[in-house]
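Why do we care about 3D structure at all? Because function follows from shape, and shape follows, mostly, from sequence. That is the central idea of this module. The next example makes it concrete: a single protein chain, its amino acid sequence, and then its structure expressed as tokens.
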Amino acid sequence: MKQESIPKEGSKVKIQSYKHDGSIHRVWSETTILKGTNHVVIGGNNRTLVTESDGRTWITREPAIVYFHSEYWFNVICMFREDGVYYYCNLSSPFVHDQEALKYIDYDLDIKVYPDGNYHLLDEDEYKLHKERMKYSADIDLILRRNVDILQSWIEQKKGPFAPDFINVWHQRFNRVVNKK
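And the structure:
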């Protein structure tokens, strides 16, 4: 892997999601970096081309703020829809960034959070299948289970990307960046 780095504010990066076996899972063609530190990367995108592992492509439908942390095994996509903010949370490895892209390993489990605060853990069957097929270690399983608990606690406490202030600040900043063009 190439040299790790911190993405610079205002730069545009590709996001690459992998599976545990090293295969590519999904690629977002362009995300504008709004904040980049050693621990946190926050970006924004809208109508971004996404390429799936089988080559199919689609374009995101709404503006989104993405949140990655170097110490937690999840990332969060905040999607702005007409009826409110939806969150799609991927249980994943912490991110790395190199000259090519921001990268992480997707570990199947997801949590979807609705505008009313209700949430659901998704894809437990897929996790069980891939855990066996790709031989996730007991350590990985434990880390992921702990991070599901951390993520649920953040959702319930409206912490981090789930805080109303987070959404307001980063959505406004993304809109300012987009409108400068």
